[in-house]
Amino acid sequence: MLHLPRQPRHWPLLPPLFLSLVLSSWALGTVGWGNTYYSAAVRSMSSSWHAFWYGAIDSVGFVTVDKPPFSLWVQALVVRVFGFSSMSLLVPQVLAGAAAVALVYATIVGRWGRTAATVGATVLAIAPISVMVNHSNNTDAILTLAMTATAWAGVRAAETGRWRWIVATGLLFGVAFTTKTRSEEHTSELQSHLNLVCRLLLGKKK
């Protein structure tokens, strides 16, 4: 008797991931240096640890950028490894977008099933605003990933009640805030929605 290999349990995640990677990387070479303000800051931060720490646009660390440096830290570390190029700036954004899609799936699937998780992941993958931010070197792709990771950890904390997930939720929320402080209204909305979801989950457990 022929035994066919078992189908991977979470194969529905693959189409949204593929869509995210294709749409976000489409004609990526035409973007050039993207936001040249941030590109210059990343180049400075990749050449000086002092500038790296302060998120400075100049190598001596005198003038800092207008946002917290976390997303620029990610790009600067990639540039240190692969060299300064437009792809070194843009590819991490594409991968961050795909990772956010995967986390949306992971957040939903355990409680609401694969169909709902696939729909949620697909919506994020094809949303025009999502594709746009993943297609640039602005801070929003990393912010989206950090906020999605916060929601994922928060749901896990509500489901398990374990301190490590509670701590992880707080740390990831801090990462999101440190990525783009001027989006405090977005992180506050995330906190409100996360609180509502956690209360619903805790109510069901009781």
Per the principal axes of the C-alpha atoms, what is the gross shape? globular
Percentage of residues in DSSP E strands:
under 5%
Largest sheet entry: none
Number of helices: 9
**Helix and strand succession?**
HHHHHHHHH
Radius of gyration: 19 Å
Distance between the termini: 47 Å
The tally of strands reads 0
Helix content: over 70%
Instruction: Kindly name the structural category.
Output: mainly alpha
Describe the model.
With 206 residues, this protein is mainly α. The protein is built from nine helices and no strands. The chain has helices at residues 14-25, 36-47, 49-54, 70-82, 86-126, 128-134, 140-160, 163-179, 184-205. Helix 1 (14-25) crosses helix 5 (86-126), helix 5 runs antiparallel to helix 6 and helix 7 runs antiparallel to helix 8 (163-179). It is globular and about 50 Å long. It starts with 13 loop residues before the first helix and ends with a helix. The model is unreliable at 1-7 (pLDDT under 50).
